[in-house]
């Protein structure tokens, strides 16, 4: 497999400036995933780096990106350093989608990511549909026992994929299934047995888990996204 990698800078917001992204595109890609990281991490932490590699191996190009807070030179992953405000996160996701669409206009696009990135991508798309986006992926939705945090998922027509660990303390499996059922046929849910919020699983290698997640995403693109009419508006 031939993979082309490109480093890209784009404007997150006028006030917060530019951030970095990496486009990894395999030959004969099924689609492109705009991939955001979790609250305490960056686009280069082992989970995002490993998941991106697994997605590329499964035939899904990735556009992973930073937020202004994670781009800051003083940010340290896996600490309690504060995130950007929700409106800045949403604006950055919108800018990432627009940049990714320009970088790979021929690929069907999905957007999402781990924890807060999946949540904020779904909020952005519910508030005002993201141009060119054909699906939203939430990896470890941070429900935190509050069903209202997922209330916006019932808005719109975009297909949704929720991938959740059965041992995730931020997203009870029964409640995540209830969320998916309330959305209806637009929502697909896949559980990773014994995975926590960071998708680590006892007695399994991280790479094996990343490949399982990537397989779910690739099959969802094939079975759901590519079967839907495209919307390039």
How would you describe this structure to a colleague?
- By secondary structure, this protein is of the alpha/beta class.
- It has a single domain (3-227), classed as Rossmann fold, CATH 3.40.50.
- It is 32% helix and 25% strand.
- It has helices at 46-57, 68-71, 86-103, 116-127, 173-183, 206-223, and strands at 3-13, 17-26, 31-36, 60-65, 109-114, 133-139, 160-165, 187-192.
- Strand 5 (109-114), helix 4 (116-127) and strand 6 form a beta-alpha-beta unit.
- Helix 1 (46-57) packs across helix 6 (206-223) and helix 3 packs across helix 4 (116-127).
Number of strands: 8
> What is the assigned CATH homologous superfamily?
Alpha/Beta hydrolase fold, catalytic domain
What global shape is seen?
globular
Helicity, as a percent range: 25-40%
In the CATH hierarchy, what is the architecture at level 2? Answer: 3-Layer(aba) Sandwich
Which structural class fits the helix and strand makeup? alpha/beta
Low-pLDDT sequence parts: none
Please give the domain count.
1
CATH fold group: Rossmann fold
> What is the element string, with H for helices and E for strands?
EEEHEHHEHEEHEH
How far apart are the termini?
32 Å
Alpha-carbon Rg, integer: 16 Å
Count of helical segments?
A: 6
Strand order, largest beta sheet:
1-2-4-3-5-6-7-8
* Mean of residue pLDDT values: 96
Percent in strands: 15-25%
CATH class categorisation: Alpha Beta
Task: Describe the sheet with the most strands.
Answer: 8 strands, mixed
